[in-house]
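User: As part of a screening pipeline, I want to sanity-check one entry by hand. Below is the sequence and the SMILES for fe (ii) ion. Please return the complex as structure tokens so I can compare it with the automated output.
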Amino acid sequence: MEIFQAIRKDHEKQRLLMKILVDTSGETENRKEYFSELKEQLSQHAVAEERCFYSPLMESDKTIDDSRHGIAEHHEIEELVEKLEQTDMTSSAWLHHMKSLQELVLHHLAEEENEFFKHAGKVLSNQQKSDLAADYEKEMQAS
Ligand SMILES: [Fe+2]
Ligand SMILES: [Fe+2]
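Assistant: Here is the complex for your manual check:
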């Protein structure tokens, strides 16, 4: 497996969880469980992705900007997750913030998959692409 497929697989999990969450309402067990799963997925993925994908790509002039941009968006996502945690689930503001989070994350994932992956494909060797996939998987399992 290449690093791109490993990351895409987890992006799909995030997309699905967000799709479910924007259809929930009130402070239900369902909403709480899916939200806590999404939080886990987002934070574990960001850490593993920064270590096993962004970090080696910081070393090339062709991908340093993508890496920096991605890290800045990870922070924005984190801040929005914190905002959601501080918002009462029974208020309409919660769903409003959840929809903003979905929009931000979808934008981030699309940018990674459509632009960053394309640039990274030219920078990484085939060996690196598979080694990084193994590192990424290990990192995700460890967390
Ligand atoms: Fe990311
Ligand atoms: Fe990602």
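Points to compare against the pipeline: The mean pLDDT is 97. The radius of gyration is 16 Å.
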